Fold this protein.
Amino acid sequence: MNTDNQYNNPYTPQGQMPTTTLGPKHSPKDGPIRKVDVRPIELLSRSKELIGNQYGLFLGISLVGILVGSMVPFGIVMGPMLIGIYLCFLHRQAGRQVEFGTLFKGFDQFGDGLIAYLIMVGFSIAMSLLTVGFFLVVGLAAMALIAGTMEGDAAAGVGIGLGILIYILFFVALMVVSVLINLPFVFAFQLIADRKLSGTEAIKQSWAGAKLNFGGIVWYMLVNYFLLVLAAMACYIPAILLMPVSMGGLFLLYSDIYRGE
């Protein structure tokens, strides 16, 4: 191996990690699923160390993967692109040479990636519509109540204040709901890349790991989401620069839960 690409592997099992399996029909592709102590900032720091002197390469891999996946209609290739990105992190963690072309090896599992992505999108759309509908009904009901009990300037003032409050609550709720919606799929593409699972089986195992580590994963995703929003407010450039570290943190979380010994 080229000594220029050597690095200290930042993966270390985190203390005592109880394990569980996915049920009585445990296939060779199924590994243990661990409950781990999730520290978001530590994961991002470990991700930065994992990427090491190949930050530029991983920035290009992450950016091209997401752009290509987003530009193709209906997100048909987003699944394979995500699989390819996580293959690059798998190679890096194993100490193997990472090349830009590794990104496109995700197409070797095109069907599984597409199925997982379509299920994720369908679930996200359904849950988002329910969330928006709920807030719309609540907001209209609140406005109607104010209009029926107050008159004139008082009603207008309270209505404006309530509108602002509903907007803030909607933004916070949208952030939380988006995290919860994506929770069952958070490790699906890593599992396809690592264990060559089918799309549906990857989602099943992803949900098993997410349930076991529910609080920690939600905390990591909320912190990560907040950091990306802050970075995006600075003309999006910092958000782009943060992208490979963010994805690397999620990969290391997957590694702690599914690959630790």
Q: What stands out?
A: The first helix runs from residue 40 to 51.
